[in-house]
Amino acid sequence: MMLKASAVALCLAASLSGVSAQTFQRLGTCPDLGCVIPPDQQDFLPGQEFDIRFEVHAPKNGSEAFNDGVPDEAFTATIAKDGEEAKSIADFFKHSEPELETWTFSWFEDLFAEAAKTPSVVNVASKAYRRVALYEPGDYTVTLKYYDGKTTTAKWTVRPLATQKRAKNVIFFIGDGMTTNMITAARLLAHQSVNGRYKSQLAMDDFPVIGHQMTHSIDTFITDSANSASALYSGHKSSVNAMGVYADSSADPQDDPKVETIVEMLYRIWGSAWGAVSTSFIADATPIALSGHSRLRSQYGVLIDQALNGVSNYSWTKTDGPDAYFGGGAEQFLPGSGSFQGKDYYAEFAKKGYSVSLNKTALLAAPNDQKALGIFCRSNLPVWLDRNIFPENLETLKNDPAGGSGPAKDLPGLKEMTVKAVEVLHARGGKKGFFLMSEGASIDKQMHALDYDRALGDLLEMDDAIRATIAKLKELGILDETLIVVSADHGHGFDVFGNSDTQYAAAQEDPRAKRDAIGVYANSGLSQYTQPREGVSYGTGANFPLNWDPRYVIAAGLGANPDHREMFGVGAKPRSPASIGADGEAYASASDRPGGFLVNGTLPTDQTQGVHSLTDVPVYAMGPCQETFGGTYNNIDVFYKMAACLGLGHGKNVTHGGGSQCKSKRAQL
Amino acid sequence: MMLKASAVALCLAASLSGVSAQTFQRLGTCPDLGCVIPPDQQDFLPGQEFDIRFEVHAPKNGSEAFNDGVPDEAFTATIAKDGEEAKSIADFFKHSEPELETWTFSWFEDLFAEAAKTPSVVNVASKAYRRVALYEPGDYTVTLKYYDGKTTTAKWTVRPLATQKRAKNVIFFIGDGMTTNMITAARLLAHQSVNGRYKSQLAMDDFPVIGHQMTHSIDTFITDSANSASALYSGHKSSVNAMGVYADSSADPQDDPKVETIVEMLYRIWGSAWGAVSTSFIADATPIALSGHSRLRSQYGVLIDQALNGVSNYSWTKTDGPDAYFGGGAEQFLPGSGSFQGKDYYAEFAKKGYSVSLNKTALLAAPNDQKALGIFCRSNLPVWLDRNIFPENLETLKNDPAGGSGPAKDLPGLKEMTVKAVEVLHARGGKKGFFLMSEGASIDKQMHALDYDRALGDLLEMDDAIRATIAKLKELGILDETLIVVSADHGHGFDVFGNSDTQYAAAQEDPRAKRDAIGVYANSGLSQYTQPREGVSYGTGANFPLNWDPRYVIAAGLGANPDHREMFGVGAKPRSPASIGADGEAYASASDRPGGFLVNGTLPTDQTQGVHSLTDVPVYAMGPCQETFGGTYNNIDVFYKMAACLGLGHGKNVTHGGGSQCKSKRAQL
Questions:
Q1: Where does Mg(2+) bind (chains A, B) (predicted)?
Q2: Residue where a domain terminates, one of A570, A599, A628
Q3: Beta A482-487 vs A617-622: how paired, if at all?
């Protein structure tokens, strides 16, 4: 599983992008030729385990060429708590002195260099100190000395102790890519308003506390879902495509310096249960980052093995595996090229005592007191709109989770998966409580496809899951001791700006005249999605639109698009707005919204989808510690708030759980 | 000033748009042929004064044609508090029976009808009951009976009493069109982050409580700034272009049923001081809606007269005029076609005891104990970016507030105006306190123009004004007794999605290749706006970018665009993205971003600008009652929260202030 760390590697500019021009970076977080990782300005929970890596860079060519490309192998590093004496890293952490590693990587300094194929090559000398922790709150300074006089320093802050649990359970709903704008649009579609007053609202609307969290990566201002999930779960920002680690410059995606996640700490300290539920494939970034430690989110097989067995190439905190784990992504479970070492992970999970469910009926029948795996399809779960309104789209899929050539059948939705997970986690966590992450994954995936209806359908599904979860917690008598947090990992630049008269648009031949069907301001009118349509009843219950295909549909847009055709209104088929032409460039798909008007894009011409955006995203909180979630803060603070509420900040090494071999030692709350 | 209410009028479809198709509405808020205004589902503060209008419609033609176009003039109406007996409106409110009014209006049922020029004509019979109030909290039912058996009912709710002041002063900052997305982008431009942690932040970021408010109009889901401001100031949503009134169907824009605003109530009940500050012309919707009552926001002259002298065509609450009133818009003050009855409103204000300032020097020197008018230019105040970074753009303007042909000189910014207003209002309000609204108006105006840099510059200016205001309140010793609320009236669908390498884009000739300069995700890199540029120092201080024109600029977009060319980065000249061609249609302006790539629009082809969006907008609160601003609520609730904090909900008619003639009776706090 571990590649040779010293291998010469030509890394992609996309994954390692530069100091000099800030946008293309030699290595994000490394301000000079010496790198301290974790870098300057990082926070830690007391007792949170992590790895440290030092790198000394010697660029052979390019604008930073130095020392003929020979890195200083005699670098030294110290750490000092404010007001105390500096000690060597090995002494301070009582860690043996690690072996020196060396490697080479390359990067492009800007787009001109990339176009000219003139990479800058960097030789590296490095050491890694594995599995250390800081126990005393306060400020620390780490100093790396190299090249006979150069220094790179990093200020680290250990946050206050938090040894008492205020919430027994935490349920964290993540609407992937979900913004306030989308929440507003979903409310408009599903809830009726009369003269400006909503007669019913979203479950989220009843949450008493709102905050805003900043989603930027450690080294770029637009994040992906791996490192943003990792920030939420560990209190440490990372780089695009990375989770549970800070990115180093080596080629091995599994040797980067790790940080302990909330479920690892929760299991280590309290022996609590934990679970993840997602409408994506379960190895996708948001669910897998709870347990995953990798520079590359695409290491799907490795990451599923980590979820079950923990990190295996280094000593690291073990959990006993998730107690409830429901989603798509059979590719990593069926034996074959998608699974780790080609093994059958249904069998691997079963060997460790899991019930394994491959459809909704089995899921609902699975025993609550047994660890539960549920994988319901290959790839992502079909979206709510296709499962409920356009089920004919499911029939042609080849996504049987058992490996057959037909479609997955008898699919659960996010609501059923989440409620079942609560039952299992409550039964298994008992007094020790639990942590559950539940993700509405395709809000993001469908926004990427500019398929607003499918995205908003999945947002409404998550809201419905939140409502059902609150009801289930009440039924179990644990609502008052459960903190519920609803947030997102990043945004897409989406908003609704009016309506479109589908009849008028369809009657126009001139593409420009089709745009005259759009009504803004006074002509935006009222939502018709909440008005019943004669002869149509979806049976989807309250809290969903009565009519997905009214005459007057919302007109909406993203701030960032590939070339595409636009014809507002729900599509019976999922969208594929742009596709790659013969010249390798992305153009509007001929088959997508063929009756629409052409919109040329604002994205690089190799992009076939929309992209993530900068915006702060909302955080909704209800339950114990809710008052700590008001105001504006960083995404890492969501971790520190949840961790403080769960009593995870300890001034000494606490290992009540310690893995399956010592379950009897689980702490009592 | 009052047009004949019974005049036959052909109203625009845009201002009165229909029940049958929901988007085009005969009259918003009127669900059947009988209309109760205020309509169903409206809330009132106890003691808040308002007008009632009933209308009975008889469509002569179209899909709703009824009774040969003869409206029932014998309609009757009653009101009943829940559990009590219904009384006639005249009896209940001890109001004389008003005279019957009749008129005719027309509307289009949909776009096909509009294109075919086939309006539906409606005859109307109506009565209006002026200046009534409900004093007892609870639910009321108003019933209109007409056409011998038809009824239209409206449920009204009077909110709880709130007779005690918890905050002496309220300062309400409105970032016009400002969303969370824009706040995030402004932070990125002005504040430096190191490895994901901001070293400084926005003033807004320090506010402890955040809420989200829904901005939709009473009859459309996209609002304009008039009726959204009105909702914030009065607790009553209205229709696009209306403020301080519910929209009726008559032609007269000044006879629509009114509602009392927060400053009218504050002056009537407590005799407090009030003021408005804006970077727009002061007769623009957001500042003028504090005192304005009109179906049409474009009645600028009338509205300025109302601000000074109150409503003059009906008996209505008088204030003593604003104590501080600073902004642009000399057109309504210079004698001529822009002012009410052609009068000199500088002189009218001076006659009532105002100091009149036409530049910053005069503003700063104006006595704090005297009512103060400051009008610094014609039209809107030039934006922060032009005042501070591109001052050459000011030199060619013809906006002298004294009426000369040259440019306005010695301009204050929002910070100077706001801080001066606080000084004046504190000196004049004294123990009675004050209410100040301060608006960053051109956030909206520049988003309309797709000029992201100018919009974000004005957002940062408002944030700077907030910071300076807090410092001034501290200095005056009144921070703890002042509630500060920062919010917006609506959004624009804006977000940042990456960066653009201006050098690479400029070096490409192919428009598609220019898009390859855009970096997303890992290639978005870090903000260069916070890095000093050699030889450039704007002198704009902390909290603003050090470099507005870096090589790597933000790539951003709006979800709704006219045709335009895009070339990311600050423009030395203000943007004009689209203009009307010879065929009357909007096309990308040839002179705007000529080096950019063409983006065809997603808006009707008569639109030259971006438009407002649906999104909920954030509310930041600090000070007394801050805890009441958490969670999700309607824009009208912002009024009820502020009003409750100011003790404006009284169970009897309270008139301590009562206008300038009885100043000695002002209540003591």
A1: 176, 284, 286, 439
A2: A599
A3: antiparallel
CATH assignment of the domain containing A122 = 2.60.40
Asked whether the beta carbons of residue B602 and residue A525 sit closer than 8 angstroms, the reply is: no
Taking one residue from A and the other from B, the number of pairs with CB-CB distance under 8 angstroms is 413
Could you tell me if A472 and A567 lie in one domain? no
Instruction: Determine whether the interchain pair A636/B196 forms a contact, defined as Cβ–Cβ distance below 8 Å.
Output: yes
d(CA B298, CA B622): 34
Beta strands per DSSP E along B176-283: 193-194, 197-198, 209-214, 273-281
Which residues are CB-neighbours of B85 under 8 A, at least 6 positions away? none
Give the best residue of B201, B495, B622 to mutate against chain A (max A CB count within 10 A). Answer: B495
Residue whose entry in the numeric block shows the structure tokens 């996708």: A284
Confidence of residue A22 (pLDDT cuts 50, 70, 90): low
**pLDDT, tens digit, for every residue of B430-460?**
999 999 999 999 999 999 999 999 999 999 9
Q: Helix, strand, or coil here: A90?
A: helix
User: Cβ separation of B201 and A520 shorter than 8 Å?
Assistant: no
Mutate to test the interface with B, among A182, A613, A629 (most CBs of B within 10 A): A613
| Chain B residues closer than 8 Å to A218 by CB | 195-196
pLDDT at A372: 98
* Of A103-112, A453-462, A530-539, B423-432, the least confident: A530-539
* A11 is a domain residue: no
pLDDT bracket for residue B230 (50, 70, 90) = very high
- Asked whether residue B442 is domain-assigned, the answer is yes
pLDDT of residue B511: 86
The alpha carbon of residue B538 is apart from the nearest alpha carbon of chain A, in Å, by 22
In this structure, are A436 and A544 located in the same domain? Answer: no
A255 and A129 co-located in one domain: no
CA atoms of B314 and A525, how far apart (whole Å)? 31
Q: Do B525 and A22 touch (CB under 8 A)?
A: yes
**Domain containing A527: what range?**
494-558+561-599
CA distances from B590 to A108, B393, B570 (A): 36, 20, 18
Q: Say what the pLDDT of residue B416 is.
A: 98
Contact call for A611 and B501, based on CB within 8 A: no
A110 part of contact set with chain B, CB < 8 Å: yes
Query: Which residue in the set B241, B551, B559 is minimally distant from A497, CB to CB?
Result: B559
What was the pLDDT predicted at A182? 98
Residue type, B653: N
Over residues B31-47, mean pLDDT = 97
**Angle between helices B262-270 and B225-234 in degrees, nearest 10:** 30
The pLDDT, as a whole number, for residue A595 is 87
What CATH number should be reported for the domain holding residue A302? 3.40.720.10
Q: Specify the pLDDT at position A311.
A: 97
Residue B150 shares a structural domain with residue B189: no
Is residue A642 in a domain?
yes
**Domain final position from A91, A125, A154:** A154
Q: Where are the beta strands (DSSP E) in A361-507?
A: 372-375, 434-440, 482-487, 494-501
| Contacts with A, B 595-624, CB within 8 Å | 597-607, 611-616, 618
Centroid of chain to Cα B289:
7
Residues A365 and A459 in one domain: yes
Q: Is B286 within any annotated ligand binding site?
A: yes
Percentage of chain B with pLDDT > 70? 95
Same domain? B347 vs B209: yes
Within a domain: residue A366? yes
Q: What is the pLDDT of residue A664?
A: 34
Q: State the ipTM, two decimals.
A: 0.94
Q: Mark which residues 222-261 of A lie under 8 Å from B by CB.
A: 222-224, 237, 239-241
- For residue B252, the distance in angstroms to the closest alpha carbon of chain A comes to 19
Q: Which residues on chain A are in Cβ contact (under 8 Å) with B614?
A: 181, 184-185, 188, 495-497, 554
Residue of A nearest to B226 (CA): A521
Number of domains in chain B: 3
Residue B618, SS3 per DSSP: strand
Segment A622-638, tens digit of pLDDT: 999 999 999 999 999 99
Are B448 and B403 members of one domain?
yes
Considering the domain architecture, whether residues B220 and B255 belong to the same structural domain is answered as yes
> Cβ contact (<8 Å) for A597 and B599?
no
